[in-house]
């Protein structure tokens, strides 16, 4: 049994994420770091205070000193951990619905726990072999004020003042306690929506997918803003609209920053997740860098392994020069700086600097027990059909066929749902449609056959 998924522990309250589990994670973390100092924080979900207090109890039982930063965004917790602690724990389910909650664990340098560390923590939880502090070794809980210092750190790093008009959507999440003030300190004229914390997420669903935030496009045009930024429930993810109210594809955002960093460094390695597009490869390779793809949820592993100057997966960007964690606040600050320094609206920058590719994604229903057989059947068919066009096949998180014309086909199992995800991208709509029909029908038939044969 696995507790950790692609981004910490996450699941429905009482079914998977319980106060008992939070307490055990606290005991395991305290045991793992041998009772040093842990920074703890939470998002605005209705169950987060309960789980945070259970986690703190577990930490205290091991003789660990606890610094309670309370309600802050996840990037601020990562930063506060690097500045103040030997580990950090965030109570959050990120962009999941309000019924869910979760736990993320960070190292003392602000990186999320690596895959091997998560396995070691799981073993501790399942063994129950926790450190037990004597009565006179139990330490205290101290309050840690983070927000002002973190804002100062981001401002120092971005080092830019602006007059842009920015529309901010906080999803009623933890970012609302920080983002409007950061933007104002940069000099931006800020208009905020859904910027009061509410664990019921009354404004919109917390995941900043286009379908959840499409209304921001019309709002941007009505208000005449230069930029729209939208966050998720714990404010590590960010989605963007330009000054015309057009949604900016998440791969385009990654490509903009990848290009910027490679040009700045005169080369270097950019790490991105398996489900990102060819426009990133195009701009990075033209600027003299290289792209390496890693499984979803492992950008920090990729930074460590490849010495990356930048890492990202859709909506999640890591700026290693600032810190090795996903940070939407640094992203919005640097994006504003980029727009001002180019002296052009965002839509024009994208049009001039980032090539257009056409992407389609769709899921095929497939129970977990049939995923392996479905993938194997689909792979055999696609390997044969795409043999003459294939440049390479990546076998992390399913199969990604990288084709010679820059197109790619990804077939991967969902880590959280009974689905196989099919993603296709190509330089033209016609090519995309042809490849998608092939890939989707292949996976659909493979799933039907796997379920029929049992």
TrEMBL record:
Alpha-D-phosphohexomutase alpha/beta/alpha domain ranges (all copies): 2-130, 148-245, 250-357
One annotated GO biological process: carbohydrate metabolic process
Keyword Magnesium tagged: yes
Domain of life: Archaea
MF (Gene Ontology): magnesium ion binding; phosphoglucosamine mutase activity
Cofactors required: Mg(2+)
Stretches assigned to the Alpha-D-phosphohexomutase C-terminal domain: 363-436
Xref: Pfam families: PGM_PMM_I, PGM_PMM_II, PGM_PMM_III, PGM_PMM_IV
PANTHER family listed in its UniProt record: PHOSPHOMANNOMUTASE (PTHR43771)
Protein's name in the database: Phosphoglucosamine mutase
Record lineage: Archaea, Methanobacteriati, Methanobacteriota, Thermococci, Thermococcales
């Amino acid at each position: 049994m696995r507790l950790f998924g692609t981004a910490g522990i996450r699941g429905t309250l009482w079914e998977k994420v319980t106060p008992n589990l939070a307490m055990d994670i606290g005991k395991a973390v305290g045991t793992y770091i041998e009772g040093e100092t842990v920074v703890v924080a939470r998002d605005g979900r209705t169950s987060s205070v309960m789980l945070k207090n259970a986690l703190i109890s577990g930490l205290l039982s091991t003789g660990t000193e606890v610094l309670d930063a309370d309600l802050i965004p996840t990037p601020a917790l990562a930063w506060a951990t690097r500045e103040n602690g030997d580990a950090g724990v965030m109570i959050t389910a990120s962009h999941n619905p309000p019924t869910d909650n979760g736990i993320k664990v960070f190292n003392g340098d602000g990186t999320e726990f690596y895959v091997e560390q998560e396995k070691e923590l799981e073993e501790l939880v399942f063994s129950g072999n926790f450190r037990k502090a004597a009565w006179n070794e139990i330490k205290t809980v101290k309050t840690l004020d983070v927000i002002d210092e973190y804002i100062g750190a981001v401002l120092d790093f971005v080092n830019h003042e602006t007059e842009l008009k920015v529309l901010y959507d906080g999803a009623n999440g933890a970012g609302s306690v920080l983002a409007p003030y950061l933007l104002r300190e940069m000099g931006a004229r800020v208009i905020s929506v859904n910027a009061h914390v509410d664990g019921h997420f009354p404004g919109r669903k917390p995941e900043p997918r286009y379908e959840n935030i499409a209304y921001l496009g019309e709002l941007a045009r009505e208000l005449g803003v230069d930029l729209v930024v939208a966050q998720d429930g714990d404010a590590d993810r960010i989605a963007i609209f330009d000054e015309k109210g057009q949604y900016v594809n998440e791969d385009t955002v990654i490509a903009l920053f990848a290009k910027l960093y490679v040009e700045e460094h005169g080369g270097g390695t950019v790490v991105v997740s398996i489900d990102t597009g060819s426009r990133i490869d195009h701009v990075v390779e033209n600027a003299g860098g290289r792209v390496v793809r890693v499984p979803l949820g492992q950008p920090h592993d990729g930074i460590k392994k490849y010495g990356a100057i930048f890492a990202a997966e859709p909506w999640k960007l890591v700026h290693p020069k600032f810190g090795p964690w996903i940070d939407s606040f640094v992203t919005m600050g640097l994006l504003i700086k980029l727009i001002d320094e180019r002296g052009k609206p965002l839509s024009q920058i994208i049009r001039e600097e980032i090539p257009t590719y056409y992407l389609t994604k769709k899921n095929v229903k497939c129970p977990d027990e049939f995923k392996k057989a479905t993938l194997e059947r689909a792979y055999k068919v696609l390997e044969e059909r795409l043999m003459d066009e294939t440049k390479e096949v990546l076998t992390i998180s399913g199969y990604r066929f990288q084709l010679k014309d820059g197109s790619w086909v990804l077939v991967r199992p969902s880590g959280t749902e009974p689905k196989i995800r099919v993603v296709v991208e190509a330089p033209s709509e016609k090519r995309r449609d042809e490849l998608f029909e092939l890939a989707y029908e292949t996976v659909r038939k493979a799933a039907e056959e796997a379920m029929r044969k049992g």
